[in-house]
Amino acid sequence: MVNHFRHYPRHAFSWKGAKGTYLLLDGHLRLKALQELERPTAPCLVSTDDDAFTYNDKVNRLSLIQEHRMIMKALEGGVSEKQIAEALDLDVRKIIQGKNLLEGLHPEVVQILKDKPITERALRILKQVKALRQIEMSQLMVSGNNYTFAYARALLVGTARDQLAKPEEPKRVKGLSAEEIARMEREMESLERDFRVFQDQFGQNTLHLGAAQRYLRRLLDNTKVKRFLQQRHPEILEELNDIAALESL
Known about the structure:
mainly alpha
């Protein structure tokens, strides 16, 4: 999206398709007020994208998988691709091509990513690896809160050949030699192993820290202990108070 100044006569905002016209998604009352004030220009956001229900990602809160399920349910109910395309203002070819969106994905992967903002290109990357690796990659995406094509592609580059959907085909990455790809695979394997160890320890460490914080709060509630620290170790008391006051660890 880019910021533009546009002239807006009363007929300027209408359904897209006619030359020089736009579909107004939001700000109808502001537009009316500006027209009544006879203001000739106003700053606005103009989108050239055509791949969602609306151009406004603040309005369209459906994830790609939720969108797909909604469309498939409509198709199963007897609604044609053309009718859906017209209702959503999309190219009918997008509806037809999108019918196979989840083919090749493990059901657990679909469940993990069902409400995540993953892109169609990233989903295509997941289809290039075997089911177990699909699950691992989707979990890494959720843990890192990163669902982009670039991140999915990086995970693919770091995937061992025997985990690819077509291991017999050589892995080619523009700008990288076979030796560099092999080194990335080893480094990615080591990184993911360390990450899993961290995940396993995180819950236990959080539990221990929570118990320690509760004990610390009870300790500071003791008048004698608090007075002793104030007199002998005020700097330590200050740090302990900060820890006890934390709402989350």
